[in-house]
From TrEMBL:
Residue intervals of the HAMP domain: 204-256
Subcellular location: Cell membrane
Membrane association type: Multi-pass membrane protein
Protein name per the record: Cyclase
PANTHER family the UniProt entry points to: ADENYLATE CYCLASE, TERMINAL-DIFFERENTIATION SPECIFIC-RELATED, BLL5647 PROTEIN
GO (cellular component) term, any one: plasma membrane
Organismal lineage: Bacteria, Bacillati, Actinomycetota, Actinomycetes, Mycobacteriales
InterPro entries, sorted: A/G_cyclase (IPR001054), Adenylyl/Guanylyl_Cyclase_3/4 (IPR050697), HAMP_dom (IPR003660), Nucleotide_cyclase (IPR029787)
Source organism: Mycolicibacterium conceptionense
Keyword Plastid: no
One Pfam family it belongs to: HAMP
């Protein structure tokens, strides 16, 4: 300002202005502290105690930043009004220039205060949003924040500069000969400094949560479980965070159901069902069947507690399952104290018979190590129907054919033999030469429920 336009700048350095400055600073500090404490204390109380907020407490937590912004701007607005009234007699428009400058500073300070407060309150907002989303208070989104920053630190300064130029040109409250370079320079510097800082805060309010989502996505790609992001926004960014967590929860639930599905019906059957859909269908194919039947399970149930019998069966079945799966077979079903395993369905194998015979040779020595367990193992090979059997709303994957019945009858017959394992002549005939050398034909017999004799073979003594 110059003496011939807006008066001597020393007019501002009056005792009244100095007293007003000190009084307003003290009053603003007291008001900000007291009203701010009243605003945040109830929220800090439940947050520090680790309690879930009520809907009312949640709304209060979401409104801390807007209320603090209003409180801060109000102190600046009151200061602008006081200084304007104190300097009305200064002449040259000093009062209006001072009031406008203070008001513009208050807008900038309140805007930055809102962004800083919102950033500092992320843990509290996250706890509030985690408790419930039904009473969510919507906050300004990305577009609204960017428009606000542009308006405050680009639009308003440009309007201010335009008003200064127009005021000098028309002599409204600034003389036409008054230099305005200083005022324009102050507006430009303030808008540049505060605008840059505010833009950085807005950019980080967007980039930080998006960066957390990106890191969580990478963790999911690496196979990490239990991944989630904190929801500390109630704008569209918060909805992105919340939706990402919902998506991860859905994926985890789907994987859990797939795992349970695989445990009940087998991984291969589960994968086959997901690929083929819900149709009741199947096909006829060559497959090998291995049947393992426990001896004396009825007596075990009568002489031992149920928990002990269940523990024994689980140990027995675990060995069977591990051995069958190691040779690319499928546990088709558990039938009380018996196990039906299939080789060649639903996944096709180069030589199902060889895989089944190799499984039997590896299985028998392991089962013999179990105390108080006797069993019989039967293997057969032939054409079977493999597919879904049942109704449209309830079915299971199974195999049907003479090979299944023959394997079960051979398992019964094997219980009375020292080797405890028998394979049919058809299974041995379909096996390759490397596997066939481990088996020897022992004879033939008419199995229960059949009219023709079945050739059977046993492993040679040192083949296991």
């Amino acid at each position: 300002m110059s003496r011939n336009t807006v008066g001597d700048a020393r007019q501002l350095l009056t005792q009244a202005n100095l007293i007003a400055l000190i009084a307003l600073m003290v009053a603003a500090a007291i008001v900000d502290t007291v009203v701010g404490w009243v605003n945040v204390h109830p929220t800090f109380k439940w947050f520090a105690a680790g309690e879930d907020p009520t809907p009312r407490q949640q709304r209060a937590a979401m409104r801390i930043a807007p209320r603090q912004t209003i409180i801060q701007f109000t102190t600046w607005a009151v200061s602008a009004l006081v200084y304007t009234l104190l300097n009305l007699d200064a002449g040259g428009g000093v009062a209006y220039v001072m009031g406008g400058a203070i008001l513009f500073g208050g807008v900038a300070a309140a805007c930055m205060g809102f962004l800083v407060t919102q950033r500092m309150l992320r843990p509290i907002v996250a706890a509030s949003l985690t408790a419930s989303s039904s009473t969510m208070v919507r906050m300004p989104g990305v577009l609204a924040r960017l428009i606000t920053i542009w308006t405050l630190f680009s639009g308003l300064p440009m309007v201010g500069i335009a008003l200064i130029v127009l005021a000098r040109s028309n002599g409204w409250f600034v003389q036409k000969t008054a230099p305005v370079e200083a005022a324009v320079l102050v507006l430009a510097v303030v808008s540049l400094i505060f605008g840059l800082r505010s833009m950085v805060l807005v950019a980080r309010s967007v980039s930080d949560p998006i960066g957390e989502v990106v890191l969580a996505m990478k963790a999911v790609e690496r196979g990490w479980s239990g991944v989630s992001v904190k929801v500390y926004e109630s704008s569209e960014i918060g909805r992105l965070q919340y939706g990402f967590n919902r998506m991860l929860a859905g994926l985890a639930e789907r994987n859990r159901l797939r795992d349970l599905f695989g445990r009940y019906v087998g991984v291969d059957v589960a994968r086959h069902a997901l690929q083929q859909g819900t149709a009741v269908s199947g096909d006829v194919r060559d497959a090998a069947v291995l049947y393992v039947d426990l001896v004396g399970s009825t007596a075990l149930g009568a002489s031992r507690p149920p928990q002990e019998v269940a523990q024994l069966l689980n140990g027995f079945f675990k060995i069977v399952v591990d051995t069958v799966e190691a040779h690319h077979g499928l546990i088709n079903k558990f039938e009380g104290d018996a196990v039906l395993a299939v080789f060649g369905a639903p996944l096709r194998l180069d030589n199902p018979a060889s895989s089944a015979l190799a499984t039997a040779r590896a299985l028998v020595p392991r089962l013999h190590r179990l105390p108080d367990v006797e069993f019989g193992v039967g293997i057969s090979c032939g054409s079977v129907f493999a597919g879904n059997i049942g109704a449209e709303n309830r079915y299971e994957y199974t195999v049907i054919g003479d090979a299944v019945n023959e394997a079960a009858r051979l398992a019964d017959h094997a219980k009375d033999r020292e080797s405890t394992v028998l394979c049919s002549g058809s299974a041995l005939a379909h096996a390759d030469a490397d596997e066939g050398q481990h088996w020897v034909v022992r004879g033939s017999t008419v199995l229960r429920g059949r009219s023709t004799a079945t050739v059977f073979a046993e492993p040679v003594a040192d083949s296991s």
